[in-house]
Amino acid sequence: VTLTIDAGTTIKAAKTDASGNATALVFEQGAMIMAEGTKDRPITFTTQETVSSANLRGLWGGIVICGFAPISGGGTREVEGLTGIPYGGSQAADNSGTLRYVRIWHGGADINPAVADPNENSGNEINGLTLAGVGSGTTVEYVEVAYNLDDGFEMFGGTVNLKWCSSIFNGDDAFDTDQGYQGKMQFIFALVDRDGHHATEMDSKTGGDLDSQPRSFPQVYGGTFIKSNHTIDDNDGLMKLVDATGGRFANLVLLGQAGSGVQNFDCGSELRTSTDQTDENIPDFLYFSPNNYIFTQTPEGNLNAFNSEASAAWSPFPTANEVNPQLQLVKDSWNTEFDLNQIDPRPAYNSPLLSNFEAVPSDSFFTDVDYTGAFAADDLWLDGWSYLSENGYLPENSVQPSGGTTLPANITGDRTLYSGTTYYMTTQVFVKEPATLTIEAGVTIRAFRTDTLGRVPTLIVERNAKIEAVGTASSPITFTNVLPAANLPARGTWGGLIILGNAIITNQAEDDIEGITEGLGRYGGNDDNDNSGTLKYVRVWYGGADIEQSSSNEGSGNEINGITFGGVGNGTTVEHVEVAYNLDDGFEFFGGSVSGKWLSALFVGDDAFDTDQGYRGRLQYIFALVDENGNHAAEMDSKLTNQRRSFPVVYGATFIKSNHSSAQTDGLVQIREGGGGEFYNMILTGYAGSGLENNICNTETRTSTSPAPSGTEHLYWDAASNTINVKTAVGGFTNQFDISGDCQWENGGDQASDSTDPDIQLLPNVWNSISNLYQMDPRAISGGNLFSNVAVPPNDGFFDSDVNFKGAFGTDLWLDQWSYLSEFGYLPSGEVLPTSSTTLSGEITSDTTLYSGTTYYMTGQVFVKNSATLTIEAGTTIKSYRQDAAGKAPTLVIEQNAKIMAEGTASAPITFTSVLPESVLPARGTWGGLIILGNAVITGGGTDFIEGLDAGEGVYGGSDDSDDSGTLKYVRVWYGGADIGFDPTNPENSGNEINGITFGGVGSGTTLEHCEVAFNKDDGFEFFGGSVNGKWLSALFVDDDAFDTDEGYIGKLQFIFALVDQDGDHAAEMDSKDDNLRRSFPTVYGATFIKSGHTSGYDNGLIQIREGGGGDFYNMVLSGKAGSGLQNTDCFSETRTSLNRPDDVNHLYWDPNNIISVVSADDSIATPFDIDGTCGWTDDNQASSSVSPDIQLIPDQWTSASDIFQLDPRAIAGGNLFTGASTPPSDGFFDSSAVYKGAFGSGLWLDQWSYLSVYGMLPSGDVLPTSSTSLSGEITADRTLYSGTTYYMTGQVFVKNSATLTIEAGTTIKSYRQDAAGKAPTLVIEQNSMIMAEGTASAPITFTSVLPESVLPARGTWGGLIILGNAPITNSAGLTDSIEGLAANEGIYGGSTSNDNSGSLKYVRVWYGGADIGFDPSNPENSGNEINGITFG
Cα separation of 968 and 1423, whole Å? Predict the structure, then answer.
């Protein structure tokens, strides 16, 4: 029996069965497990129990695999705790299956407490993975055991090999071998916390016999073993080699706190040596390489590499490198996961592990290495799938600090960080007086969570030092962490940025900045004009870790702010700066006078803006978005009687607070402790206890009566220009002010502010975190309330006085391009600017025209009502927001008896798309879609309501199959499919993601031609009943089905194309729903359906016809990777045949000339048909042709749009698609001249207007290779390319020995980007062949791309020209080499003929080349073999 577990599967186990025995998965001898996960989709075994810091281990059993491989003493044994489950035998190469990318977490419960062994804890706690007598035919790679109560991996005899295995935080030993285990291990990692025991315990004796055979002989090359600073037995070794085990141990790293590195005792007759022995002596020796690294310390801090008892005499005594191995990051002191913070077990750039290593045995298992340990410097193989990775303890693999990119602890002289380079902070970095740190635009600085001493990496710019960090909107400077994107967003993952100056602080004193060792962070002085440098377009994300961490989970109270300004003067420039996801405050100003403009604080864990200690700067255009984890948008203190008083002056702020699960009491702005200041054009909205909270007051005057008092001893809130529109909770009451009893205002209780809706362009009514924010636009609605009663800022050289709006935003979305909100798709593109004339929302009740050349914006659902016609001119674009304030996805709904007349052209299509910037596209689900509702017949007759709209909206269906809902021609619907009726309690969806275009009961009077849906979250085209016909329809990269028919749809379809990527389902799903009512019966002539590969098995059909669906299907081409071509399930009484078409509409006919050429995910031939038991076909032979479809270009390997560099779905001239095609009927709809299979003959009807054309994936429509103009493969005889003819390179072309390729003047050779195998077409003139390409000035010879002019110029669109000769290279006559990029034995060049002649190039142009000639699909960027324009070798 074989148990196959697909990638991405999770198995959750109960702790025990009804008898109290631990649940376990046991594979008996002869059984197999095939568990093949991937890095992105690992297989996980875990518990059903609730996991917490106090409940981590022993929550289920584990996995036991029993094989027939030899064990010590021979014969068989029974697995501990189980009765009648034997293991062992004589088959060393026994195969029990495959474990790859498998995680086994939280196990180790007692598998059978009734059978107790007092020597093994409670008796029979099971290991995470028990391999008992398992043979070397079994594959165990990328397997992890975490938090097991007993051992992680235990091998009882056998010969199974382990590679890339991780054992972390287990309760006993990480790796345990016994009973004659003779397998090999490479790249093994053990992380042993205070509850664990050894990294390895390796035994051999059986029944007290220290020389029992076979002796255990593990061969371990490449291990990293790390131990925390608390152990259950301080005398134990990190590695325990006992009971006469043999083995080879090399390239090991032992680090941490233990009684010793290696403990060796209870030995037999085996030789113990630090000199390797020959294989003939296996297994009777124990070899421990002197090149291993041991840096283990006793609790007292003493280094102790070896603990060898008298019985363990060595010859010679073992040695090791007892120096710090310089791993990238392992804290010196840690106890458990919860104070580990972060780890990177790879060697640092200066590690001795990179230069001192031992060659591995030369066999088929071991991989050659050039380092010691389990990890290369550039391969953190735990990334993406390990417990450590999933829980945010590991940096991503691309994080690889070098000497030039690691920032030092002290920068004492001027230094520049250069654009295009990523730098790393591995510890606290101090810019010392008088140094200037210059950071160029586009630089990224990534910080670790901690250093080895537990300090948090932070950049500190000291007094009299400077930072000059000047980014741009398109090239901002980013401070962030080293975590992979899968662990983000996250707060507190590094420190932050601290700038210290000489400006005045409260009492004109100096002070120490919080969180830094006393004396290292002094700030304050007497120079309010002090200049600490410039911050422009700087982003500080995911910071706020405790800079001086304690052992408490809460920290020491010194979580650092995103950016701290300590006594910074107004000579410093701070503009376009953002803090996002900081654990503490966003911006904190301790005194000083620095001013700031265009500041954004998002989703911080405390206050967005915090001022204190006499801060007297000016602020304009400041924005705070506070989620349920945050506190105030602004907290402004002054420290009561201490002088000077804090006095910020603010003009223009937008402060927004999310809803919480409970009513709020704190103010959105809190001013306290005698804080003063002046506040104008403030917008406070959302959910809070109040808008302005004022408490703990002093002698300052408090007033909202205009004008403000003079001086700086007052608090002025401009009632006329400020808006407070906050509620205590969803559905709660409005509370503008919360004034404590000690804070009486000059105008009594009347601190009134405008409470009207602030008319922000888009702000969801209900949200609590970024996970359900989806989209926002904080700008003022054109003509709205924010443009009235505006306070004019002073013209003082800092404030922009030409302001006509309240808040931080008018029409300028200054967050565009560089903000977190923009980068991750929460903001519209900056040029999106709805006005009253371009905004679409609500009802259209009369004829309306949308004009060419204008971009319109759907900000809400739009309903074209009865009798109204919406006309959309060619070239019009309609951009939609993701949702409206109520959470509904903007969608255009054409109701019954209304019409849409949308007639574009190929050169001026009509486009429905998203407001998002190109930088975050393509993306699915970014708006709703297009719904057309008619009066045609649907199953059951009568009417129904379309899915997703509110009750009473979206009626469709009737009795008029010729109903006319208008025209769609050259219409593109991109990036839609958002949940039209969003349910905030279900972030995934409410089940109502809308289709790209939905036709509900639409009649045949409607015209549907040249329409496309691309990147829709749900189906592309969905037809609910009706009879509308469609031609030239394209559905690309949708998340469900490309075409979906249901509820009695009886329309005709011709020339339909579906490109289904790894996220999609069927190219067509065709249902009917009822046997007794109108049956769905589409008639299809000419479809090309192509499916990509998947990362795991995909067993669905490329077409699924089910639930009694009928129809006629001719000239179909199904190609790609799928479980089957046609899947037919859940049938009713319809006849199903592919031989004799019945003359009724109660049948399903599949023409036997249709082509089904699909393969399964592993590239094996897939079954053409998958017919379930309810669907017997009358002929029992569902016939199709299985010949190659002969499509011009479809990549063999692709999974998504990102790795389709080019395709051409047309038929190859003279190919199989022109053979055996059915002639469509001449009925007024079908084009009867299209006698070919598929959606394309020689015409590329997608040209100009399709997504594929716009983004350069298609050749130009006039490109048409024929047998005489196609160039590919070998040219072995003289050939001439003639003037006036365009030729096409569809693959690599090799002009072979002695052949001459002559190209006449004026000839053009156009090349595709790649061939089906992914190789870039390139012309290669081999040695002893010639090219004679002699153009003229007026008739040059041109090598160029097949792409249309609209996407040119562009680089890398094909390969290039390579000419190879026999002339000497490298100053050594006769020496040859292979040219880069070609396969082995292709592209030989070099020799001894200096006057060698490879031909002539005159007036030759080589344009747009340089594609990767040997494309590597595992590396979409390139394989390092981008070809030169012309290469002379």
Answer: 44
**Structure confidence at residue 1088 (pLDDT):** 97
- Alpha-carbon distance of 1126 to 1104, in angstroms, equals 6
Query: How many Å apart are CA 1017 and CA 974, to the nearest integer?
Result: 10
What are the DSSP E strand ranges found in 1355-1410? 1361-1363, 1377-1378, 1388-1389, 1399-1402, 1404-1406
CB neighbours of residue 728 within 10 Å = 19
* Cα separation, 1363 vs 1410, whole angstroms: 15
Beta-strand relationship, 200-202 and 618-626? unpaired
Whole-number Å distance between alpha carbons of 802 and 811? 13
Pairing of strands 32-36, 2-5: parallel
Looking up tokens 């979906």 gives 1044
Distance in angstroms (rounded) separating the CA atoms of residues 734 and 756? 11
SS (H, E, C) 48-96: CCCCECCECCCCCCCEEEECCCCCCCCCCEECCCCCCCEECCCCCCCCC
Distance in angstroms between the alpha carbons of the first and the last residue of the chain: 57
Nearest to 890 by CA among 923, 853, 858: 858
Spans in the chain with pLDDT lower than 70: 113-124, 230-234, 310-311, 515, 547-558, 641-642, 661-663, 748-751, 980-992, 1094-1098, 1161-1163, 1180-1181, 1371-1374, 1381, 1384, 1413-1425
Q: State whether the Cα torsion 958-964-968-969 is positive or negative.
A: positive
* Bond from prior residue into 434 cis (ω within 30 degrees of 0): yes
User: What helix, strand, coil percent values describe the chain, rounded to 5?
Assistant: 5, 35, 60
Find where tokens 């409607």 sit.
1006
CA distance 109 to 127: 9
- pLDDT at residue 1035 in the model: 98
Among 395, 397, 281, 273, which Cα is nearest to 330's? Answer: 395
**What pLDDT was estimated at residue 987?**
46
Q: How many CB atoms lie within 10 A of CB 32?
A: 17
pLDDT score at 208: 85
* Nearest CA-CA partner of 38 in 505, 383, 418: 383
Closest CA to 699 of 634, 740, 645: 645
CA pseudo-torsion sign 847, 852, 853, 855: positive
Whole-number pLDDT of residue 546: 78
- CA–CA separation, 607 vs 646, rounded Å? 17
For 935-948, b where at least 16 C-beta lie within 10 A, e where not — what string? Answer: bbbbbbeebbbbbb
Residues 6 or more apart from 1202 whose CB is under 8 A from it?
1420
In this predicted structure, what is the pLDDT of residue 120? 46
CA of residue 1221 relative to chain centroid, distance: 43
Cα(54)–Cα(741) distance, integer angstroms: 46
Q: What is the pLDDT of residue 1098?
A: 65
Give the helix/strand (H/E) hosting 622. strand 618-626
Q: Give residue 252's identity as a one-letter amino acid code.
A: L
DSSP conformation letters of 1197-1253? S-SSGGG----EEEEPTTSGGGSSPPPPP-SSSS-TT--SSSS-SS--TTTTTSHHH
Question: In terms of Cα–Cα distance, which of 596, 478, 492, 484 is closest to 540?
Answer: 478
CB 1394 within 8 A of CB 1326: no
Q: Which two tokens stand for residue 712?
A: 């700086």
**Nearest Cα residue to 971 out of 930, 1015, 911, 906:** 911
Residues in the chain: 1433
Per DSSP, the three-state class of 548 is: strand
CA distance 324 to 985: 52
Please give the C-alpha separations between residue 466 and each of 414, 423, 504, 511, in angstroms, as whole numbers.
Answer: 9, 18, 18, 19
User: Would you state the pLDDT for residue 1371?
Assistant: 66
In 10 A of CB 757, how many CB atoms?
Answer: 15
Q: Are strands 32-36 and 97-105 parallel, antiparallel or unpaired?
A: parallel
